[in-house]
Design goal:
single chain, about 400 residues, mainly alpha, Rhopdopsin 7-helix transmembrane proteins, two-stranded antiparallel sheet, two-stranded antiparallel ribbon, 16 helices
Length: about 400
Amino acid sequence: MFHQLTEQAVNGSCQGAAPDCNRSADGDALQLPTFSTAAKVRVIITFSLCAVSAVCNLLVLWAAGRGGKRKSHVRILIMHLTAADLLVTFIVMPVDAAWNITVQWQAGDAACRLLMFLKLVAMYSCAFVTVVISLDRQSAILNPLGITEAKRKSKIMLAVAWTMSVILSLPQLFIFHNVTITVPENFTQCTTHGSFVQRWQETLYNMFTFTCLFLLPLVIMIFCYTRILVEISSRMAQSSSKSQFLEPQNKDFLNIPKARMRTLKMSIVIVTSFIVCWTPYYLLGLWYWLFPEKMEETVSHSLTHMLFIFGLFNACLDPITYGLFTIHFHHGLRRRCRSTNTRTELGHPCPRQMSFLSSHRQFVSSGHSTHSEEVSDGANSKNASVRNVSVTKI
């Protein structure tokens, strides 16, 4: 987010560090930021998103964390993505809303450095974990026989993702600090003003962050799903050409198992929502870094507020997406409850196991669960069923 990476902080009706933000376009008058109407709307929406995101992601984290110590690597990936979304929920959203209310920074220099560091860690972790999911899905489709290594590889990639998130965010601890002006009145802001000797140094740092935070993950995601699309298209072509030679019971062996395809679709939606939600805001930041004066003249502060809120909406979409792709299990559970026609305690969880809670039962169920995606695509039906039983215990 460019307001965290430059000397500018989007607060009230002004976007800028105290010394620069208070100057008008002609450079003569000083104008302190205020708690404008646009900022008030932003605060209300941000707190609303924070509440929704907290409930949804905590439910997903609780549901995915149940079922014993042995969890599928898909469930582990979802848990890490949920943890990254919770960092955005409990750090980025409240800090942004409170900062808009107070207009200036009132938490002190130490909190300024720490919170700017944690905010960037949250953003990096969301991007990097989404990349890990893309790489995992690519491996699952292109190398279906390497199931035994999938969980180990995903753990390594997740460790690298979180480690890199922390390392790449460390400069925030040193470049952000409190800046105070006395004219026209005392005003303190958390900013990078004065941390860079030349403007090109700041632009270089911002471009590096933009590349690592958005551009590089975007390229990797597009590359992974392009390879997946090419592989699926190739299999469909092979299946079509060989279908006339196959017996009816063996025509499905070239197809991707339904559970794996469902997980692939879920990951595609997660990646797409990340790209759609954050691309407009990051492009606006790129515009500001390259042509700050022109952007200030062209783009209204209300639009900046809207694009930032749209980016935050991604933290709410991930658990919703997760729930939608497992909600069919909830419907099956309700039908089972109705068929039993009993008054046992089984009737209580039925209406309550909504999309997010049903994900737990989805993962701990038998061969029809997401675990069954581990079955090799190239095996025959008998071997596939055998692997299906064994892999669900992974």
